[in-house]
Amino acid sequence: MQIDNIEITFLKIDDYEDVKSAMIEVYASMEYSYWNEAHIKKLIRKFPEGQVAIKIDGDLAGCAL
Question: Which of 11, 14, 33, 60 shows the smallest number of beta carbons within 10 Å?
């Protein structure tokens, strides 16, 4: 697999569905495995610089909230 671009950026609400999918996969054994969109919006609004996304070739690979 070739990686052409790794990007560290601030999370945007447009990333929500990818974040949700990742949380569901990673925390599959938890009943409430993902944060809802309103929670993510609030984090971005209150502290946008603290919500970090890592993207590989444009696809979300991880995040820090």
Answer: 14
